[in-house]
Amino acid sequence: MRITAPERTAIQGPGLVDAATAYGYGYGYGYARISSHTTDGRDGAVEPTLSLWRRQLGEVPESVWQRTELRVLILADNGLTALSPRIGQLAGLTTLDLGHNALTSLPDSLGDLAELTGCLYLHDNNLSQLPDTLGNLTRLRYLNVGENPLTALPDTIGRMTELIELRAQHSRLTGLPDTIGHLRKLRELWLRGNALTTLPSTVTGLRELRHLDLRENVFTELPESLADLPRLRHLDLRSNRIVRIPDWVARMPALEKLDLRWNSCTPSRRLLTELEERACVVLL
Question: Which is more confidently placed, 273 or 29?
Fold first, then answer.
């Protein structure tokens, strides 16, 4: 199937890990429901949660650092400009939400949170770099660092081998570290709105990747390393500078949707036919 769009339309899809489902709030637009505790599903056990969402705190109350029993801590949308190194004392945290603040840096002690196995939200801050100790969070499954003035991701991100979804959208990335290929469990990679021109050859290691969002970057051609991704289903290349689609795209075994809108390319009739015969949707 081939679809031509007459006008630009912004489409936001849900991510693999939906915080609204996991913790009962509508992320980014306001919490729909907040409870002081959530059940972790283990014999009715209660998971201690502290939500200080949108309390206009300006800084984290000292009493928070004494809550070492916490598993979930929500500090989103509070105008925070700094985070105390004492965050490392909350060693039992499995999910930490620092999104929608004004943080300019993060303490190295963030890497001491070895029990972070759920989600870490750092998006929509003023972070120009991430600490190398982020790579110590080797059990984390969801990381959102988008909407920050980041020009690079730390090499140590390759140690976060349990990641299933990584979001670094609307930043200033000009490249990805070679270590990205170590994230062998990664299923979704969201890189919209950066300044990427290519991907490292090591992305061939992302054998579980299903969704790759590269829209609104500055690619002029498709990175050939994508040809070897056996499970990639959705490839979004909207609003780049691509002028040619290589024939090897037809050999991508799992591709179901290829979005090429707002590029200058016109795929060959033969390539389009091959993709259509495989029931791959091509958007032009």
Answer: 273
Q: Which residue has the tokens 């140690």?
A: 159
Rounded Cα distance between 128 and 153, Å, is 10
Contact 4, 259 (CB under 8 A): no
C-alpha 153/C-alpha 163 separation (Å) is 15
Q: How far apart are CA 194 and CA 209, in angstroms?
A: 20
3-state SS track over 246-278? CHHHHHCCCCCEEECCCCCCCCCHHHHHHHHHC
By the 8 A CB rule, do 215 and 259 touch?
Answer: yes
pLDDT digits (tens, 9 = 90+) for 67-86: 999 999 999 999 999 999 99
Token pair 């999104």: residue: 99
* pTM for the whole structure: 0.86
Scanning the structure block, which residue is given the tokens 């992320």? 27
- C-alpha to C-alpha distance for 113 and 96, rounded to whole angstroms: 10
CA 141 to chain centre: 10
Give Cα 153 distance to the centre of its chain.
12
Q: Which residues contact 23 (CB under 8 A, 6 or more apart)?
A: 38, 49, 72, 74, 95
Class of domain 31-172: alpha beta
pLDDT tens-place string over residues 87-101: 999 999 999 999 999
* Interatomic CA distance for residues 232 and 234, integer angstroms: 6
Domain boundaries, the chain: 31-172
